[in-house]
């Protein structure tokens, strides 16, 4: 049991580690139009998952589509993921990785707020304090720079909505992701046709070398690998552990933005992030207390 728990934590840690350093990889694809990168992520993920199901000889992949409500949730989840991926890639290529880190810091707090507002989840004072501090941190950025952190908010809300929709879909996570990619493949192909017809595609003299083409093809594998690791680890460890580990990703993104990309980090940023980091600490305390209470109930 202890070995399984340790292995689960290691697997989940590797998933969040990969997500945290992936901006370095996407930055290498700077000459590729941002939406063409999204096209590759969708189509290659779809093909890799399809290949995995063929090898496994899975016959239950499309069964869930018989239910109309499930179909609608899958379509909406796919669109939410498309918005999230698009905003993330555009932000990274625009050298705004620190804003991506802000999105991943506030994402779990937005999920808490959605749970309290729409799903009548208990609103303890720790939860309310964490959400309030995160909101204050975002407002400090807005009023300090007279500019809304669009990328961070689009990413945070789209992924929060994606998480809420996924909670409504009672299906194997890999089947769910495959079906979401299936929804998006026609849009991705349409986008690629448009890029090719306008001459904006990287395939019009932008590849440069076979090595760069192979680097581009890695986008599907690097999209799927952390998801596979995450879903594997998720079934081995508690949600409380996942709650703590998820902050590895935005912390690494923050460090990459400031120390690798040299993005501007002013006193206003410091005050804003201080509020958000404090919100994260309170969120983690709330997770720890909730986990302790559940353990005591089981005794």
Key terms:
single chain; 299 residues; mainly alpha; 11 helices
Write the layout of secondary structure elements.
Layout: H1 2-28, H2 34-56, H3 68-93, H4 97-118, H5 125-145, H6 150-168, H7 173-197, H8 210-234, H9 239-245, H10 248-260, H11 267-298
Helix pairs in contact: 1-8, 1-10, 2-3, 2-7, 2-8, 3-6, 3-7, 4-5, 4-6, 4-10, 4-11, 5-11
What does this structure look like?
This protein is mainly α. 80% of the residues lie in helices and 0% in strands. The chain is built from eleven helices and no strands. Helix 2 (34-56) crosses helix 3. The radius of gyration is 20 Å and the shape is globular.
**Mean pLDDT value:** 88
How many β strands by DSSP?
0
Report the order of strands and helices: HHHHHHHHHHH
Give the oligomer, counting copies of the same chain as homo and different chains as hetero: single chain
- The helix-and-strand class reads mainly alpha
Low-confidence stretches: none
**Which percent range fits the helix content?**
over 70%
Query: How big is the Rg?
Result: 20 Å
| N-to-C span | 18 Å
Largest sheet: none
Q: What is the approximate shape?
A: globular
Helical stretch count? 11
Binned strand content:
under 5%
How is this structure best summarized?
The chain is mainly α and 299 residues long.
């Amino acid at each position: 049991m202890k070995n399984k728990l340790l292995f689960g934590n290691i697997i989940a840690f590797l998933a969040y580690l990969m997500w945290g350093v992936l901006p370095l990889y996407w930055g290498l694809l700077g000459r590729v139009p941002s939406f063409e990168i999204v096209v590759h992520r969708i189509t290659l993920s779809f093909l890799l998952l399809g290949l995995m199901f063929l090898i496994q000889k899975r016959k239950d992949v499309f069964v869930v589509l018989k239910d109309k409500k499930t179909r609608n949730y899958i379509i909406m989840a796919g669109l939410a993921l498309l918005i999230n991926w698009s905003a993330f890639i555009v932000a990274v290529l625009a050298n705004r990785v620190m804003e991506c880190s802000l999105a991943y810091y506030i994402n779990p707090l937005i999920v808490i707020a959605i749970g309290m507002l729409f799903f009548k989840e208990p609103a303890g004072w720790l939860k309310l304090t964490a959400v309030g501090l995160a909101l204050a941190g975002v407002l400090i950025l807005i009023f300090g720079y007279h500019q809304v952190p669009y990328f961070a908010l689009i990413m945070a809300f789209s992924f929060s909505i994606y998480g809420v929709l996924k909670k409504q879909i009672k299906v194997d996570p890999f089947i769910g992701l495959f079906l979401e990619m299936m929804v998006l493949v026609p849009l991705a192909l349409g986008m690629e046709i448009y890029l090719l017809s306008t001459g904006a595609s990287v395939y019009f003299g932008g590849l440069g070398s076979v090595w760069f083409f192979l680097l581009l093809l890695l986008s599907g594998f690097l999209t799927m690998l952390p998801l596979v690791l995450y879903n594997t680890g998720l079934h081995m460890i508690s949600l409380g552990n996942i709650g703590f580990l998820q902050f590895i990703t935005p912390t690494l993104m923050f460090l990459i933005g400031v120390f690798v990309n040299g993005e501007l980090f002013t006193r206003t940023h410091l005050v804003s992030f201080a509020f958000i980091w404090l919100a994260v600490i309170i969120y983690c305390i709330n997770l720890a207390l909730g986990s302790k209470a559940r353990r005591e109930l089981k005794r």
